[in-house]
Each structure stands twice: as C-alpha cells, then as structure tokens.
Amino acid sequence: MPAIVLLGAQWGDEGKGKVTDLLGERVDYVVRYSGGNNAGHTVITPDGQKYALHLMPSGALSPSAMIVIGNGVVVDPKVLLAEIDGLAERGVDVSRLRISGDAHLIMPHHRALDLVVERYLGSSRIGTTGRGIGPAYGDKVARMGIRLQDLLDPGILRKKLELALREKNQLLFKIYNRKAIDVDATIEEYLAYAERLKPYIAETRVMLWDALDRGETVLLEGAQATMLDMDHGTYPFVTSSNPTAGGACVGAGIPPTAINKVIAVSKAYTTRVGSGPFPTELFDDNGQHLRKVGHEYGTTTGRERRCGWFDAVVARYACRLNGVTDLVVTKLDVLTGLPKVPICVGYEINGERYDDMPMTQTDFHHATPIYEELDGWWEDITKARTEAELPENARRYIARIEEICRTRVSVVGVGPGREENVVRHPLL
Questions:
Q1: Would you list the DSSP string of 54-114?
Q2: Any idea which positions bind substrate (predicted)?
Q3: Residue 302, annotated ligand binder?
Q4: The domain that contains 319 carries what CATH number?
C-alpha cells in the first residue's frame, strides 16, 4: 500500500488525532513529520480514556502500528521522555517508537530565546507557545542545529553546543538581560536523556522505504495545519515548519510518488489560537456557544481558541494546495441548536469580491466575510452513524461544504469519541 497523508485544513486543532487513531488499527506505520511539542492531539478511546499527545504520533494508542517521529520534527527530549513515561504508566506499549537521528533537538537556549523575544515584541508578538520550536527551526536553517544523533557522540555534542552558545549567550545576557546558559550543566542533562533515548533512535527513512516495498501502509501525520504552514499560511502568524502535504515528503523522507491519498480534517466551524487574521471570527454569543460547547481550549497550552463560522475560502484553498482526496468534517454536533449556520463563501475587500484567498496579507487582514446562511437543526446527532440518521438540515450543511470545497466529505464527526462518526465514504 502507498502512503497516506493526514493533515489539518484550517489553523489546527481540527481533530486530526481522532482520525489518526481511527485509522491507526488499519495501518502499519504512523509517522509524525513536522512541528514539535507546540502541537497537541486529544484522543478518546472506546472505554472513555482520554489521552493528550504532544510529540508522540497519535498511532501510539494503536495496539500494533509502528510509531515514528520523522526528521522534520524538533524534539524536546525532556518532554518526549515524560510523555513516554506517562503512556507506559497507563499500559501503552511505547517500545514500537522510533525517532529519526536527523530530527533536531530543542535546547535550553531555544526555550529561553522564544520566551524573551515574544515578550520583547509586545503587541506585535506572534503568539508562540514559548516552547522553543521557532528558534530550533531557525538554528536548523542556519546550520547551527543539534540533532538527535549528536546525543550519541558526546564530543560532537559539546562542540556544537559551545559554538551555538557563543552567540546565544551574548543575546540572552547582553541584549535581553537574562542568565547565560551553562554548557557543562546542559551537556550533563542531555547525555542523561541520551541514555534513555538511544534505543529509539533509528534510520527511519530506510525503515519506511522498506515498509512501502513490502506493501505496508504508512500514515503520515501532520501537526498544526495548512494555514499555519511557513510558506503557504498566514505569514508571519504561522508555525516554523511545513505541515502541508509537501512537507510530509521532506519531514519523513517519503517520495511524493508513494503518496496516493491525502486526508484533510476540518471542523464544521473555524478556530485558531494566537495572533493573526481570522475573517470569520465571532465576538458575540455565537462565538461563546462554539467555544463552550466545543470545549475550545488548546490541548498543549490551555489557551482559549478564537472561534468563527466555517470559512469555505480557507477550506477550498487547503484542499487545492494539498491535493486533498478526502475531507473529514469534525464537531458537527457543536452546531446543534443554532437557528442559522452561516458559511463564508467569499470575501469583500475594498468593495471587490474574492472567491479565493487574496494574494497579499494586507488584503486578508481587511477581508470581510460574505456569508451564505443555512437553516440549523435541533435534533441530537451524537448517536447518528449513517448519513440517513442525520437531520435534513445537517445533511444540507455537509453537502454545501462538499460543493464549495470541490472535495468529497468522507467522514463527519458527531461527537468526540472514536466511534462517534458518520462514514459517507470509507477512508481505507
């Protein structure tokens, strides 16, 4: 079987973890290919157990799939080990984990710089999680990064860290008036991580190539989402990697010709965390309804998510950019009880209508949504398992999303549980 990409079609938090877990028992490998512990997936198992995963691929809850952290991920070893220990304590088998030796490490100076730079920016801040992800990717691009494989060679680790801190400590101490990072203490800390992580470090590219050669199914799981992509998102209010389908090839070492299915996940409305433009954002009772009923608080940060109506311009952009074959619409149940459920079908900018994403960030900042209002429904849909069991207005809403996005809606989420889905077309 070729590879499958699973990604977010909005600004993240769409429910990718649920879909990954849904597919996890039917795939052989689940690979995380981008981001760091600034992402979070919440997975609820059939017995009601809730798991918040940050670095571990969501397939960790599958009883058999190999789980892989690819070269495109930045890894905070302390966070990863805490997550491994937490899962093991709950009876989850983590021996199936493999981590690319080429994945870059988040170091103490990355976290320190992330926090002070955000504070320094004040009202112009990006809205990062402060976990060092951006600075780690910055060092990667600047060819100053430290990789997991460097943990296996103490001499190389020290040499690279001393070189990095020659600059970073100057910034921390002289520019931001913060304490410099101690080389020896950091080396001691990270070599202790190395002892525990060594069994998991592997050449994951070859592992995945061999799996594909054997006809096994590889699921590539993106963190964050399309509109947070470094190149194609709402720059600069984006993440520091490429969570789009093209990023899967780079972040996991999978050739593009191996991918034959791209599954995008979108909420039945829209949310985002942090700063940046958000045309359909709501500041009224409807926005409060979406936040309260949808439990819209970040898995990783606990921050309130900004909420708004479904933006079909964004969703169609994501579908075309990623070559989406199947769209999964989650949290349809959150819209139950609303008399009207608007869909943004275009933008008005300076008196002109746009049906596609405007070229400039300035125009997107000033976009006013053009809405098409559909009638809502009052029936409880959480028990629906077939499309026929959904209220007529709910079916119309999904059909309209499918029509505007020009992509088939294969699965509709009607509740947070693993089984609370309406499958219109099988994903596998």
A1: SSS-GGGGSSS-EEEE-TTBEE-HHHHHHHHHHHHHTT---TTEEEETTSEEP-HHHHHHH
A2: 299-305
A3: yes
A4: 3.90.170.10
Triad 195, 199, 205: Cα angle to 5°: 130
Report how far residue 192's alpha carbon sits from residue 214's, in angstroms, rounded to the nearest whole number: 36
- CATH code: domain of residue 150: 1.10.300.10
Pick from 152, 236, 146, 133: nearest CA to 183: 146
Q: Is 253 a known ligand-binding residue?
A: no
**Could you give the CA distance from residue 414 to residue 390 in angstroms, rounded to a whole number?**
9
Q: Check whether 168 is labelled as a binding-site residue.
A: no
Shortest CA distance to 411 belongs to which of 395, 390, 425?
425
286 is in an annotated binding site: no
Half-sphere exposure of 168 (CA within 13 A, CB side): 27
Describe the crossing of helices 77-89 and 183-197 by its angle, rounded to 10 degrees: 40
DSSP conformation letters of 212-244: HHTT--EEEE-SS-GGG-TTTSSTTSS-SS--S
Distance separating alpha carbons of residues 39 and 225, to the nearest angstrom? 10
* CA–CA dist 224, 13 (Å, integer): 7
Confidence category of residue 294, pLDDT binned at 50, 70, 90: very high
Residue 39 marked as a ligand binder: yes
Contact 396, 372 (CB under 8 A): no
Structural domains of the chain, count: 3
Q: Does 12 belong to an annotated binding site?
A: yes
Q: Say how far apart CA 74 and CA 99 lie, in whole Å.
A: 11
pTM of the prediction?
Answer: 0.91
Q: Hey, which residues are catalytic here?
A: 13, 41, 140
Q: What is the DSSP letter of 47?
A: T
- CA 194 vs CA 20, 52, 76, 151: distances in Å: 29, 24, 12, 5
Q: Which domain holds residue 411?
A: 266-423
pLDDT tens per residue, range 39-84? 666 777 667 778 888 898 888 888 888 999 999 999 999 999 999 9
| CB 147, CB 70: distance < 8 Å | no
Query: Residue 314 phi/psi, 5° resolution?
Result: -65, -45
Helix/strand/coil percentages in the chain, nearest 5: 40, 20, 40
Q: Domain for residue 428, yes or no?
A: no
Quickly tell me which residue has 């989402």 as its tokens. 225
Residues 88 and 213 in one domain: yes
Percent of the chain past pLDDT 90, that is, above it, reads 76
Q: For 418, which DSSP code?
A: T
